[in-house]
Amino acid sequence: MTLFEALRLALLQRCSLQPLPRLSVDLLRYGAASLAALAVDAGTLLLLVSCFGVNYLVAASLGFLCGLAAVYALSVRYVYDDRRRLRPAQEAAGFLVTGLIGLILTQASMALLVGAFSLQVGVAKVPTVAVVFLFNFLSRRMLLFSSAAG
Question: Would residue 32 count as lying in a domain?
């Protein structure tokens, strides 16, 4: 075995034995839960706009709230192992508050991208999702789903 092969093998063994940092695991799980919630959110949005003629801002709000319910259920069940010691009602309220801030971000982004820049609703949803995803993950992880004392 050459020195290069030995170093390569040692590096692979070291990397494979190290678990992913907790933040990475939470981010991957939250990403998967968010994709499921996004399907609910965007599906609701597009269905209400396309089939029922609902105003895009009203439809975006309803879609966002449906997605919020889905991601909460998935988050408490599958995403986070570390949780603060909050009563379920406090945790749900915190999740709702971060969700409402996310909704404000969603509304502002959709209004700007559709109203000011004339993007199609589906196209405007893409950057909106990215911004709101990062806000939601970071705020929920720091405020609700960490092992730090509440």
Answer: yes
Supply the range of the domain harboring residue 92.
22-143
pTM over 0.70: no
Output the six-digit token pair for 145. Answer: 């789903």
Residue 136: inside a domain:
yes
Identify which of 25, 103, 111 has the alpha carbon closest to the alpha carbon of residue 69.
103
Tell me which H or E stretch contains 58: helix 56-74
Distance of alpha carbon 22 from alpha carbon 146, whole angstroms:
10
d(CA 67, CA 42): 8
Q: Note whether residue 88 is domain-resident.
A: yes
Rg (CA), the chain: 20
pLDDT one-digit tens code per residue, 57-116: 999 989 988 998 899 899 888 888 766 677 888 888 898 899 889 889 999 999 999 999
d(CA 87, CA 146): 14
In a domain, 109, yes or no: yes
Q: DSSP class of residue 133?
A: H
Close Cβ partners of 86 (under 8 Å, ≥ 6 residues apart): 94, 144, 150
Tell me how many domains the chain contains.
1
